[in-house]
Structures are given as C-alpha cells and as structure tokens.
Design goal:
The protein is 12% helix and 32% strand. It has 2 helices and 10 strands; from the N terminus they run E-E-E-E-E-E-E-E-E-E-H-H. The mean pLDDT is 79.
C-alpha cells in the first residue's frame, strides 16, 4: 500500500504472517516496526532526517506479553508496544524482501525504499539492549565519520 515504505519486510500485513521495518507514511514518515499486521507496531516519536545514516533494529520476544515489540534507533529503544497475542507463522508462501515488500503469494513488489540499506541481520533469538548497542558500534564504524561509541546510545 502507499502508506508505508519498507526497509525490510516478510509477507503481506493482511496475511498475519508478516513483519515490517520501514517508514509509516501515515505518521509523518516516522520509523516503525510492525508484527503480524497493521495494529501491532512500535513507532518512533519523530521522523528521521534524510541523508543521515541510522542503525535501526526491531525485536519481538515472542512471549505474548506486554511491550514485546521494540524499535531501536542508533542502539537506543525508541518505542515499545504490545501485547501481540500470536506467534508469527513460519510461512513459505511469503517472501523476505529488502528495500521493498512483496504481497502475499508473490503477486507484486510494493513499498519501495529509496535510501540505501547497508547491512541486514536476522536472528532466531531476541537480542538484548547490550547486543544491539554492540552491533550498532560495529556497523557505525563502517558507515559514519563519528566515533561509533559517540554515535550509538548505550542501553
């Protein structure tokens, strides 16, 4: 749909088998991490500036409890939400896409991201705040002229 721009996505939000990390154009281009559809999403307080590099990370701990969906920017938690009440289905129908999203059943590519994506990492476990900070420092060394420990916010 025209209301979002994907950095990385799997599945179509309507399928319930989805996750989405990208811009939510319905909220003045704020960054969002969405699990399982349109209602369960963590959204940043403000829009990110164009032409800047950011380290972004979304986590879902799978505990089906409150605040189990988190969005990090430059190592710091920016937003939490929950309680998502279902496990994410392991769908072989829905593709993983970087820089766009693919509709259910691979019918079309949509929500194209116009920026650059430096690195993508997907884990089968939920990272801790310290692990996210350490990943931010490692990536910032490759993409920014600012000292990584100054760029990234400690947990």
């Amino acid at each position: 749909n025209a209301t979002s721009t994907a950095i990385i996505a799997k599945g179509a939000p309507a399928s319930g088998n989805a996750f989405f990390l990208g811009y939510d154009n319905t909220t003045s281009n704020k960054l969002m991490f969405n699990i399982g559809g349109t209602t369960q999403k963590a959204v940043t307080d403000s829009a990110l500036s164009d032409s800047n590099w950011y380290y972004v990370c979304g986590t879902y701990d799978g505990t089906l409890g409150s605040n189990n969906i988190k969005l990090y920017v430059n190592g710091a938690v920016q937003s939490t939400t929950g309680a998502y009440t279902s496990a994410i289905a392991n769908s072989t129908v829905d593709d993983l896409a970087i820089g766009a999203s693919v509709t259910q059943g691979r019918a079309a590519v949509a929500n194209s991201f116009t920026g650059g994506v430096g690195a993508v990492q997907i884990y089968s476990t939920t990272l801790t705040g310290t692990q996210i900070y350490n990943n931010c420092v490692a990536q910032a060394a490759n993409y920014t002229s600012t000292a990584p420990t100054s760029f990234c916010t400690t947990p």
